[in-house]
Amino acid sequence: MSSNCKVSQIIFCTQILMMLSCNQLPELEIFKNLLTRGQLQIFQKIQRTRLLVYLYGGMFGAILAKLLTEEFCTQALVIMIVQTVFYINYPWVELMVNYLDTPQQKQAWTNLNNRVSRIYSHSLFVGGISSILSAYLF
Question: How many Å apart are CA 63 and CA 21, to the nearest integer?
Fold first, then answer.
């Protein structure tokens, strides 16, 4: 198996684990329980927008990968890298923090945001180290 295949598999798995763990956080439920009905609708709209941006990033990555290479594992790697870079650098217009009213909502949002950031950072770190080890040791 080529190193690109190993790296692609590792990154794909860490992305899946990260997404699953972020959707199951107790901080998310605490935050959502503090929102008004209108704020919850805004939050759901922002979540949908972020998912669409993530999917569009994957689509752009797929187009670029197809133009750059025919090798499947390299294409997968290009797709995931473009998708991640696109998502991270997207100019977000709506931010949930702008719709929060109470100190409790703002604190719950800070707690949730910090937890998700830690999960994302840990996922990138573990995925990066695993990719390096896989490419050079196996």
Answer: 29
